[in-house]
Design brief:
Elements lengths: L1 H5 L6 H7 L4 H11 L26 E7 L5 H4 L4 H5 L7 H4 L23 E4 L4 E4 L3 H5 L4 E8 L5 H10 L9 H9 L9 E5 L25 E3 L17 H22 L2 H24 L6 H7 L9 H13 L4 E6 L8 H25 L6 E6 L3 E2 L16 E2 L3 E6 L7 E3 L1 E2 L6 E3 L2 E2 H11 L9 E3 L2 E3 L15
Parallel strand pairs: 1-7, 1-8, 4-12, 4-15, 5-6, 5-7
Antiparallel strand pairs: 2-3, 4-11, 8-11, 9-10, 13-14, 16-17
Length: about 475
């Protein structure tokens, strides 16, 4: 009984007397429950697990702009003129240091250094160098902290994306958004804590729902995907012939049946199922409202660009992200595919920037003018970087770059981040980090810190072990904190 109480399980007379005759079976059940996640006082359909934050948060919410495929840091944020000086020469062994290559370029007879075709210039009072490919981002550079020294352990897309999203290369762990939903809950009663959007018509590396899944956390914490089209959330609308009153009666009947089942089994997943049904019912009214952009003034579309009028584009999704966090959503995850440029990089990255630069900058500017940037954390980046050498043929106008996990760039804004700064430094080839390395676990530890969470204390007991987003690693990166 004490174990059950510590587990946060509601005990009733029917369950106690119905199970007390089971002797060792009851003790075993209590032991299992005491060894479960609910030892932390969290019920599947309840509120946030943290009744009090570990420390004062700088951010209340987060928006992630994930550039799937691995944007090239040397074309965007990490200017390396030495590459242009040595263009076409062999990558020095002293730089590569015998590090592994992918199978796509590992068998090349030559690894020719490839200089960027794009110019860089310093912008803002901070004087941060930004590529000509990102003219809109250059205008907000004083609001950004550009991290040039991020590194990861995975060299291929699926494990690298999974690692960025869940803290593990192998699928099955909860995503960052699920951890935040579990820890902090939602400020909105009519919307989920965690929402996901993928840019339409942007081909590239496949994205799987497990990247925004809840893993072994209760399923109420998985991300809810919003889509372009008549029904922004699948299966949310009532089927033809089913009225709102009928739906309400159906849910009431289901809730009663589930309550009876819960009293017999004390299975927390039953409560979670009830909670999800009720959230779906409330979303029938809230989702159409948030997805209807007709109340946005013309100045909003001037800021985000004309693409924002087309549901499902990256620009429209950025605008939707702002509308969702305004209504209390805790975490919004945007995915934009197509950054995997093994060949034809100059043309490919130019198109990608045209599709994302204005809206990314607009989101930061929009949050700032609405007084939301100070407590909203915005993060832009991909799963790894690209190589200094060309994959395939190197010509005067064309080249490609392979995967490179040793160093890459990203930016952060708002929510307690030190603005107008550059953190970390790479060598002259953007191949190795020479100052202030930031591991993926360090990044996630810092994101949680900005949201008021000590990453070492946010744990969930599963299969006899306490898991956390940062596994058994992760250090706070104080240099990027305001």
């Amino acid at each position: 009984m004490n174990n059950l109480r510590r587990a946060g399980v509601r005990i009733n007379r029917r369950y106690f007397f119905g199970r007390s005759s089971l002797g060792l079976g009851t003790a075993a059940l209590a032991s299992l429950l005491g060894d479960s996640q609910y030892a932390h006082g969290k019920s599947a359909g309840g509120g946030p697990v943290l009744s009090e934050l570990h420390h004062a948060p700088r951010a209340k919410r987060m928006i992630s702009l994930f550039m799937s495929g691995g944007p090239s840091q040397m074309e965007l944020f990490d200017h390396k003129p030495v590459l242009n000086e040595l263009n076409g020469t062999e990558l020095p062994d002293s730089i590569r240091k015998g590090q592994r290559l992918t199978g796509m370029s590992g068998n090349q007879s030559s690894l020719p250094v490839a200089g960027s075709l794009f110019k860089f210039a310093r912008h803002g009072k901070s004087g941060i160098e930004v590529s000509e490919l990102l003219p809109h981002t250059a205008k907000i550079v004083d609001d950004l902290c550009v991290v040039r020294s991020l590194y990861t352990e995975a060299i291929n897309h699926d494990p690298a994306i999974t690692f960025m999203q869940t803290g593990a290369q192998i699928a099955g762990r909860p995503s960052l958004g699920a951890w935040l939903s579990y820890a902090l809950g939602s400020e909105a009663e009519q919307l989920p804590a965690f929402c996901v959007m993928i840019s339409k018509n942007a081909s590239g590396q496949p994205l799987y729902s497990r990247l925004w899944g809840s893993g072994f956390l209760p399923s109420t914490h998985q991300g809810v995907q919003f889509r372009a089209g008549r029904d922004p959330v699948l299966y949310l609308s009532n089927p033809p012939g089913v009225s709102a009153d009928s739906r309400r009666k159906l849910l009431d009947g289901l809730a009663e049946l589930h309550e009876n089942l819960y009293e017999q089994t004390l299975d927390p997943a039953v409560e979670g199922r009830i909670s999800q049904y009720e959230m779906a019912y409330r979303m029938q009214a809230s989702v159409p409202e948030v997805a209807d952009l007709s109340d946005e003034p013309a100045s909003t579309f001037d800021l985000y660009g004309e693409d924002a009028k087309q549901p499902g584009t990256f620009a429209a999704n950025c605008l939707m992200a702002r509308r969702l966090i305004e209504r209390g959503v805790r975490f919004v995850q945007l995915f934009h595919q197509g950054w995997d440029q093994h060949g034809g990089l100059p043309g490919g990255i130019r198109r990608q920037c045209q599709n994302t630069d204005q809206a990314s900058a607009a989101l930061v500017s929009d949050l700032k003018r609405r007084g939301l940037l100070d407590d909203t954390l915005v993060v832009w980046g991909g799963e790894f970087g690209r190589t200094a050498y060309s994959q395939g043929a190197l010509t005067a106008t064309n080249y490609g770059r392979d995967h490179h996990p040793r160093c890459y760039s990203m930016w952060m804004a708002g929510g307690g981040v030190r603005p107008g700064t550059v953190y970390g430094q790479t060598d002259d080839f953007s191949y190795n980090i020479v100052e202030n390395p930031v591991h993926v676990h360090d990044l996630n530890a810092t994101l949680l810190h900005l949201l008021g969470i000590d990453h070492t204390r946010l744990t969930y007991r599963h299969q006899g072990r306490r898991f956390r987003l940062t596994d058994v690693e992760g250090e706070l990166v104080e240099g990027i904190l305001a």
